[in-house]
Amino acid sequence: MKAILTYTTMIDDKKVEETRLFDTEKAKKICGIKNGFGYEAKEIYITEKGVIFIHHVTDKKITVPDQKDIKRKIGENEPEKYIEFFGEVEEG
């Protein structure tokens, strides 16, 4: 699935709007998210440039979440995947 989306990012402490093409066939899948019925309802991907996006399988759409928030959620729920895609972190 492909979508051209505009999202806001921070560059040099300034909000900047970016417009990019997101493609589930070219990005790497980080993990899936199952709904309450056990079906994979969302898939989380990362582009070659490091932008994380979500493919909403049931709604057939793509969104770009807050990058810090989604990385936190991946770390909380899929720590092995977090390390694989973002590197080792210091033990607490």
Strand and helix layout:
Layout: E1 2-11, E2 14-23, E3 28-34, E4 40-46, E5 52-56, E6 61-63, H1 67-77, H2 79-86
Antiparallel strand pairs: 1-2, 3-4, 4-5, 5-6
Helix pairs in contact: 1-2
Overview of the molecule:
The protein contains two helices and six strands. The chain has a four-stranded antiparallel beta sheet with strand order 3-4-5-6, covered by helices on one side. A two-stranded antiparallel ribbon has the order 1-2. Helix 1 packs across helix 2. The longest helix has 11 residues. The radius of gyration is 14 Å and the shape is globular. The model has no long low-confidence stretch (mean pLDDT 94).
Strand order within the widest sheet? 3-4-5-6
What low-confidence regions span 5 or more consecutive residues with pLDDT below 50? Answer: none
What number is the mean pLDDT? 94
The DSSP helix count reads: 2
- Strand percentage: over 45%
**Helix share bin:** 10-25%
Q: By helix and strand content, what is the structural category?
A: alpha+beta
Helix/strand order, N-terminal first: EEEEEEHH
Shape: globular
According to DSSP, the number of beta strands is: 6
Biggest β-sheet: count, sense, barrel?
4 strands, antiparallel
How far is it from the N-terminal to the C-terminal residue, by CA? 39 Å
Radius of gyration: 14 Å
